[in-house]
From TrEMBL:
<dbReference type="InterPro" id="IPR034660">
    <property type="entry name" value="DinB/YfiT-like"/>
</dbReference>
<feature type="domain" description="Mycothiol-dependent maleylpyruvate isomerase metal-binding">
    <location>
        <begin position="4"/>
        <end position="82"/>
    </location>
</feature>
<dbReference type="InterPro" id="IPR017519">
    <property type="entry name" value="CHP03085"/>
</dbReference>
<dbReference type="Pfam" id="PF11716">
    <property type="entry name" value="MDMPI_N"/>
</dbReference>
<protein>
    <recommendedName>
        <fullName>Mycothiol-dependent maleylpyruvate isomerase metal-binding domain-containing protein</fullName>
    </recommendedName>
</protein>
<dbReference type="InterPro" id="IPR024344">
    <property type="entry name" value="MDMPI_metal-binding"/>
</dbReference>
<dbReference type="InterPro" id="IPR017517">
    <property type="entry name" value="Maleyloyr_isom"/>
</dbReference>
<dbReference type="GO" id="GO:0046872">
    <property type="term" value="F:metal ion binding"/>
</dbReference>
Amino acid sequence: MTYATQERAALCDLLDETGPDAPTLCAGWTTGDLAAHLVLRERRLDAAAGIALPFLAGYTASVQRRIKAATPYPELVRAIRNGPPRWTPYGLIPGLDGLVNTVELFVHHEDVRRARPGWEPRALPAGFQDVLWKRLGMAAPLFLRRSPVGVVLRRIGGGQTVVRKPGPTVVVTGEPSELTMFVFGRQKHARVECAGDPGAVARLREARLGA
């Protein structure tokens, strides 16, 4: 079982537990909205481009609303649990599901977990933390492209990734899982330490980050 399949199963278990109306860290989205988003992402490739391309975002949002309205919540969760259909690139290309979906499923799992009171970070296997760190190193320039300051992502125990920008630099230290949540725009729900000019730290914590 891959980390992607583990996160998929754990997320679906949590979605079943919470029902469709629970809050998430995705602004304005309930768990029902999040489930519809994941189904769209894996099964409506005609609409998925709008997740990343702003000029298509309106079409993507309308398709997501229709999916949510037309599909009972348990069926949405079941579709996510079953994974991408075999006719999609995720199903046709070996390893693509793990490559593309591991971080996505981890972040959305935490979006549901951390929207609940009393949450604590999970103790993830070292191998999973290594995978998240590797993906973070490759994607940090994209995730931090809107950062108003330079950023050094420093992993507890060693290793760092630098995204240089003009002006001050903030050092963000934490486990790869927490750094991932931070750069995905969940700064207020990431257990990290930020060091640098106080004004620069404040600007980074309030910035719109993520893909």
